[in-house]
Amino acid sequence: QVQLVESGGGLVQAGGSLRLSCQASGRTFVTYAMGWFRQAPGKEREFVAHINWDGGNTFYADSVKGRFTISRDNAANTVYLQLISLKPEDTAVYYCAADPKGHYNNYREYTYWGQGTQVTVSS
After folding, report:
1. Which has the closest alpha carbon to 7: 24, 17, 21?
2. What does the mean pLDDT of the chain come to?
3. Hey, which of 21, 22, 35, 92 has its CA 20 to 30 A from 54?
4. Which residues contact 28 (CB under 8 A, 6 or more apart)?
5. CB of 38 within 8 A of CB of 114?
6. 83: Cβ–Cβ under 8 A, 6 or more apart, which residues?
7. Residues 18-64: pLDDT tens digits?
8. In Å, how far from its chain's centre is CA 22?
9. Is the pLDDT of residue 79 over 90?
10. 27 CB contacts (<8 Å, ≥6 apart)?
11. Is the Cβ–Cβ distance between 9 and 17 less than 8 Å?
12. Residue 27 pLDDT
């Protein structure tokens, strides 16, 4: 079992930056691959980024590649998402998730979810 709590969202102008954090509880965090997803109003939840258990492998959605960076600190039970060069279309609730059973970019495969943090990018 793991519980996830996101933080770091907010309102930012286009071109700005944010750093999202996902604090996990539980001793098994280090064994889990982690993902970030986002969901805009009226849209399906979409994949943003994924990181394996030791941070050695990362994957990104094409829409955020080169602008977002996922990382993790297993000693701190935390996964991060650095967002730069933000665009209005990045506006969404951002969720972290743990322990995908299948494809890392499919939200249905993840076992554990946080409550989400709102990111709003103004033009």
Report:
1. 21
2. 95
3. 92
4. 1, 2
5. no
6. 17, 18, 19, 20, 64, 67, 68, 90, 119
7. 999 999 997 788 889 999 999 999 999 999 999 999 999 999 999 99
8. 8
9. yes
10. none
11. no
12. 74
Nearest alpha-carbon partner for 122 in 96, 86, 98: 86
At residue 4 the predicted structure's pLDDT band, cuts being 50, 70 and 90, is very high
Strands 68-73 and 78-83: antiparallel
Q: What is the C-alpha separation between 53 and 62, in angstroms, rounded? A: 22
pLDDT for 28 equals 84
The 3 state secondary structure assigned to the chain is CCEEEEECCEEEECCCCEEEEEEEECCCHHHCCEEEEEECCCCCCEEEEEECCCCCCEEECCCCCCCEEEEEEHHHCEEEEEECCCCHHHCEEEEEEEEECCCCCCHHHEEEECCCEEEEEEC
